[in-house]
Amino acid sequence: MGKFETKLAEMGVTLPDAPAPAANYVPFVQVGDIVYVSGQISQDASGLLTGKLGDDVDVAAGAAAARACAISLLAQVKAACGGDLDRLVRVVKLGGFVNSTPEFTQQPQVINGASDFLAEALGDAGKHARAAVSAASLPLGVAVEIEGVFQIA
To answer: Do residues 146 and 96 touch, judged by C-beta distance below 8 A?
Structure first.
């Protein structure tokens, strides 16, 4: 087990198998040393994490949903790295989408669930640029979807 997966294990996290795409797209594309990971929807071992921020989901639950997306992102990166997550050089950028009401304005606090997790799990390699935006609806009614750009060796 490499350094990143050891740290994840210390945090009580085991990466799942990389989720399969739900439509006509690929889970990631590698161009040189950059890996573009398709949007990962909020889900965990119990299923989809659904709902709308500002209505039936609070910020803490939204941040937990964003953390779940980050775990799926890392699972995709591990697959892109042939199973060796230690090939990850850094998280370059995240694009976070929050299923929320028009009045909801705490998108950054929700996506912090992913950003904080990646910083804790990966240290300096987890520091990244980011966008956090609202969406009127997301696929399957999930609370959060996050895409990512990663540099690998």
So the answer is: yes
Residue pLDDT, tens place only, 90-149: 999 999 999 999 999 999 999 999 999 999 999 999 999 999 999 999 999 999 999 999
Which string of b and e fits 47-63 if b means at least 16 CB within 10 Å?
Answer: ebbbbbbbeebebebbb
| Cα gap 7→13, rounded to integer Å | 9
3-state helix, strand, coil in the chain (%, to 5): 35, 30, 30
Angle CA 43–47–91, to nearest 5: 15
| pTM: predicted TM-score of the whole model, two decimal places | 0.97
End-to-end CA distance of the chain: 17
| Helix locations, 17-139, DSSP H | 59-80, 107-122
3-state secondary structure labels for all residues of 53-71: ECCCECHHHHHHHHHHHHH
Cα 16 from Cα 8, distance rounded (Å)? 12
Alpha helix positions (H), 11-98 = 59-80
